[in-house]
């Protein structure tokens, strides 16, 4: 396993397990069992996913020590503000059945996020949160946040070969904030696995297209969150640390950038307004 060191000194693995849309107990049970067996130690959830309770249940029942795994969760914009954020975090701690959250994240930029950030810092000082970060913050939004306090440890963004977001990636690197990727395989919304470059590299290394794409992101210093509830795919996604992409491989992958999103835009004001009302 490769690790990235956050700007607060804590290390996180280069790949974590995403849990979006895993809301059935039987699916979560099977997923956690398969993930732990395969070597995953970082689990990403959110209040918005409505699965913190079952994720917490199966991690607690796994037999693993709390220090053996990390949990990240998020506060949705409708819970921004001092009291609402405290309730969201307290509920997450209860539902996840833990004494602390490893990484707490602001899910999207929105009105009232600064008060939420203050609560994050307060909970961190109390030891209830280890690290604090954000999701879906653009350069403009991140610059605004950086003026008001400590830097987040990471920014979780939609990131895949069709959306390489080089400017934001470089900005995060320069400010020592980890770039973390959600939807690294585009959630099945594209033909990414059929790209000639990806298929050729998969053949070259004897790997699957998904493994090549995940390895590419990690090779450029991005932590990836790979989501699956299928045992073989869970194993396959983490089996990417026994080969290295060359500079030429990386250049070939860079050619796939279409600047194309398959989900919401962080600067779409209409979407941000809607998110604040969900």
CATH architecture assignment:
Alpha-Beta Barrel
Helix and strand run: EEEHEHEHEHEHEHEHHEHHH
Structural class: alpha/beta
CATH topology name, in short, is: TIM Barrel
Query: How much of the sequence is in beta strands?
Result: 15-25%
Oligomer: single chain
The top level CATH class name:
Alpha Beta
Strand order of the largest sheet: 3-4-5-6-7-8-9-10
**Approximate helicity band:** 40-55%
Gross geometry:
globular
Write a brief structural summary.
With 278 residues, this protein is of the alpha/beta class.
Q: What is the topological layout?
A:
Blueprint: E1 3-5, E2 11-13, E3 15-18, H1 25-38, E4 42-44, H2 52-60, E5 70-75, H3 82-96, E6 101-106, H4 113-125, E7 129-135, H5 139-146, E8 154-158, H6 166-174, E9 178-182, H7 196-205, H8 209-219, E10 222-227, H9 231-238, H10 247-254, H11 269-275
Parallel strand pairs: 3-4, 3-10, 4-5, 5-6, 6-7, 7-8, 8-9, 9-10
Antiparallel strand pairs: 1-2
Polypeptide structure, described:
The protein is built from eleven helices and ten strands. The protein is α/β, with parallel strands linked by helices and 278 residues long. It has a single domain, classed as TIM Barrel (Alpha-Beta Barrel), CATH 3.20.20. It has an eight-stranded parallel barrel, surrounded by five helices. Strands 1-2 form a two-stranded antiparallel ribbon. The longest helix is centred in the N-terminal third of the chain and has 15 residues. It starts with a strand and ends with a helix.
